[in-house]
Fold this protein.
Amino acid sequence: MGDAHRTGRSSRQAGITMMEFLIAAVIGVIISGVLIMMWINIGRSSAMTVSHAEARDFARSGIARLSREVRDAEALPGYVAVLEAGPTSIVVTTTFNRSGADVETTKPRVVRYWYDPTLPADQRRLYRDLYPDGVTDDWASYAYERRDVIIPHLLNVESTPAFTYTYIDGDGDRMPGTDDPPVLTVTDPDDRARILLVSIHVLVDLDPDRAPNPMEISTQAQLRNQRVLY
């Protein structure tokens, strides 16, 4: 009888029931699902981080080029270095990044930076247009040689202009004054010849496929080189 009792107890301890197996399987599935979701989220987070970093670098490189070209603007004979100064576009003549730029007789090229604030956000771009040498009269009617996208996902609208200006007016006063709003447009050629600073302020969408994730870039370009070639 003692042997039978011991044998029965050993049989019960030797295996697991179907219920125990099902519970273990369910726990295993749950743990596997959690691990898979964690792996997916880590992958998404890593991809988003890389995407954001690339968008930041691309935008910063574009704005750095814009500010350098504006800073090194030079006038063609009979013109001023800044051909157009508006809130959504700026046009300058410059020898920046051009072969022979250090030679006095090298003529500047017309470069235009612009965007259309009325377009939907997913279509709004900051462009750089490069025009033929020496085009100043009715330059806007000429076909561009190359159009580059400087910022592919621009969030600036009419209430957040990308370009504002500081200049000296005909009376020798600095514009805008201390209590004045920013200057958005400089139309008079004499005033454009006295532009001191171009303030650049852009909003870049780092995550265009989801809710807007704006990055702000602000800088200033001081025109230092408005010499006229004769």
Summary: The beta strands are 82-85, 89-94, 109-114, 126-133, 146-151, 163-168, 174-175, 195-205, 214-222.
